[in-house]
UniProtKB/TrEMBL annotation:
Xref: SUPFAM superfamilies: ClpP/crotonase
Annotated ranges, domain CoA carboxyltransferase C-terminal: 231-462
Leader peptide range in chain numbering: none
Protein name in the entry: Carboxyl transferase
Length: 478
C-alpha cells in the first residue's frame, strides 16, 4: 500500500468492498508537471486511488478521488491511472466503479488536463456495453467531470454534501443556489434524471453492492444468476389490487420479494429496475398510475399516459439490458400520450427512442398487460408487433384502439344513451378485451393475476437459449 492508503478515498473503497480485499495499483504515481512550481508540491497517487477487489466474491475495479491532494483535480497522471484501470477491467471483464470527489480540471496542467478528460471519456465510451460502469458522487463533480457519471450506466449521489453540475447554480441566467440548487442530489435525481440512487454514504455502499450482485460482470460472461430458494409456483392472491404500481407487482413476483428500482425519483410514471426470477436477473419496465404509502394507501396518482421523460428513461434502461443479455419484462398499463404544449415539443422523438429500444433488443422479451393498453402506446410498450416473444394479459385487461365507450360515441355520434351503452358493450367484447386480442394472436395466454410469477418463470426459462439475427449494419441512428 502507498501513503494514500489511509486517505478518505481509500476509506471509501474499503467501506465498499469485501473486507481486506482491496489491492491498490499505481499507488506511487505522482504528477509530472512542473509548471507553476508543481514540482514543490506533494501529489501522492496524483489525487486518485485505483485498484481492484471483490464485492460478494465478484471482481470489481475501483477508483476513488482524493480531495486532500490538489482537491482531487484531474491532471495527466490522474487520468492515466483511471484509463489504465479501464484497460484492465475490459481485459478481465469486470465492472468499474468510480467514487467521485473532485474540484474539477487541474488548471496548472491546462491542455494536458483537457487531454486527460478526453482520454477518460474515450475509455468510458469503449467500455460502454462491455462492462457495467457505476459512479458514486460523494463531493464535487462539476464542469466536464459531470460527463463521467452521464457516460456510466448507473449513478449514486450522496444526498447532503455532494454537488453535480455542468454549470454551477449561480452561473445560470436568472438563477441562484437559494432559488434552485441545480447541483443538488434532489435536482439531479428528480428533475435531471441523471442520478439513479441518492442517500447517505453507507446507503450508497449498500446500494452499489446490491446492484453489483444483480448485474453480469460483462456482456459475454453472464454471472447474474444465483440459486433460488423461493417457491417457483408462489401465488400472490392480492396482486391484482396493485395494478397501478409496477414496483409493488415486482416486489410480489420477484424472488424473495426483492426489487431494485432505478431512477425511482425521476419520471415516476415509468418504473424501471431489476428482479430475479428463479435466480435469473430480469430487467423490468412498467407503467405506474399510482403509488402507495407504508400502510397500503394511495400516496400519489399519475396519468395513465406515456410521457417524454418516461419514454427516454425506459429506452435507456432497455438498451442497457439488451447490451448485457438481461431479459426484459414489461408491465403495460397506459392509454395514450401525454397531451400538453411542452410534451408535444419532444414526445414523438422520445416515443421513437423507446420504440427503437424495444424493437432493436434481441434479448428475451415478455409483456404482461395488467390494465389498459390502448392506441399507439400499446404498440410501443413491447407489443408482439415490436418483437415481444411472449405476451400475457390479466383477465380484466383491456386492449384496443381506445376505451370502448369513447369508440362508441365516435362511431354512433348523435345516438341516445341506450344505443351508446349497447354499442360500447359490443365494442368491448369484439375489439378491446383481452380475449379479442388473444383470438387475433396478439396475446398468447390470459392469466389469473395471482399466477403471474409462475408464468413468467416458465416463459424466461423457455426463452433462455433465444437467438435472433438482425440485418448487418454498423449501428442504428435513433
Amino acid at each position: 500500500m502507498s501513503n494514500t492508503s489511509q486517505s478518505l478515498a481509500s476509506t471509501r473503497i474499503n467501506a465498499l468492498l469485501d473486507e481486506n480485499s482491496f489491492v491498490e495499483i499505481g499507488g506511487y504515481v505522482t504528477a509530472r508537471s512542473t509548471d507553476f512550481n508543481m514540482h514543490e508540491k506533494e501529489t501522492p497517487g496524483d489525487g486518485v486511488v485505483t485498484g481492484y477487489g471483490v464485492i460478494d466474491g465478484n471482481l470489481v475495479y475501483v477508483y476513488s478521488q482524493d480531495a486532500s491532494v490538489l482537491g482531487g483535480t484531474i491532471g495527466e497522471m490522474h487520468a492515466k491511472k483511471i484509463t489504465a484501470l479501464y484497460d484492465m477491467a475490459m481485459k478481465m471483464g469486470a465492472p468499474v466503479i468510480g467514487l467521485i470527489d473532485c474540484a474539477g480540471i487541474r488548471l496548472q496542467e491546462a491542455t494536458d488536463a483537457l487531454n486527460a478528460f478526453g482520454e477518460i471519456y474515450l475509455k468510458q465510451t469503449l467500455a460502454s456495453g462491455v462492462i457495467p460502469q457505476i459512479t458514486a458522487v460523494f463531493g464535487t463533480c462539476g464542469g466536464g467531470l459531470a460527463l463521467v457519471p452521464a457516460l456510466t450506466d448507473f449513478t449514486f449521489m450522496e444526498s447532503k454534501k455532494a454537488k453535480l453540475f455542468v454549470n454551477s447554480p449561480n452561473a445560470l441566467d436568472g438563477n441562484h443556489e437559494s432559488k434552485c440548487d441545480t447541483a443538488s442530489a434532489k435536482f439531479q435525481s428528480e428533475d435531471a434524471g441523471l442520478v439513479d440512487f441518492t442517500g447517505s454514504e453507507d446507503e450508497i455502499y449498500a446500494g452499489i453492492r446490491e446492484l453489483v450482485s444483480m448485474l453480469p460482470s460483462n456482456n459475454e460472461d453472464d454471472m447474474s444468476y444465483e440459486e433460488c430458494t423461493d417457491d417457483l409456483n408462489r401465488a400472490s392472491e392480492t396482486l391484482e389490487n396493485a395494478v397501478g404500481d409496477p414496483a409493488v407487482i415486482c416486489s410480489e413476483i420477484g424472488d424473495d420479494h426483492v426489487f431494485v428500482e432505478t431512477k425511482a425519483a425521476y419520471a415516476k410514471e415509468m418504473a424501471t429496475g431489476f428482479i430475479r426470477l428463479n435466480g435469473m436477473t430480469v430487467g423490468v419496465v412498467g407503467n405506474r398510475t399510482e403509488s402507495y404509502d407504508e400502510d397500503g394507501n394511495v400516496a400519489e396518482k399519475y396519468a395513465d399516459v406515456l410521457t417524454a421523460r418516461g419514454a427516454r428513461k425506459a429506452a435507456k434502461f432497455v438498451k442497457f439490458c439488451d447490451a448485457f443479455e438481461i431479459p426484459v419484462l414489461t408491465l403495460t398499463n397506459l392509454t395514450g400520450f401525454k397531451a400538453d404544449l411542452h410534451s408535444e415539443r419532444c414526445i414523438a422523438n422520445a416515443a421513437a427512442e423507446l420504440t427503437y429500444a424495444f424493437a432493436d433488443a434481441t434479448v428475451a422479451k415478455v409483456n404482461v398487460i395488467t390494465g389498459k393498453a390502448f392506441g399507439s402506446v400499446y404498440t410501443i410498450m413491447n407489443s408482439k408487433a415490436l418483437g415481444a416473444d411472449m405476451t400475457y394479459a390479466w383477465e380484466n385487461a383491456e386492449i384496443g384502439m381506445m376505451d370502448a365507450r369513447s369508440a362508441a360515441k365516435i362511431m354512433y355520434d348523435g345516438e341516445d344513451a341506450a344505443v351508446i351503452n349497447e354499442k360500447a358493450a359490443e365494442y368491448a367484447a369484439l375489439q378491446s378485451s383481452a380475449l379479442s386480442a388473444a383470438k387475433r394472436g396478439y396475446v398468447d395466454t390470459i392469466i389469473d393475476a395471482k399466477d403471474t410469477r409462475k408464468y413468467l418463470i416458465g416463459a424466461f426459462e423457455m426463452l433462455f437459449t433465444k437467438r435472433e439475427d438482425r440485418p448487418g449494419k454498423k449501428h442504428g441512428t435513433v
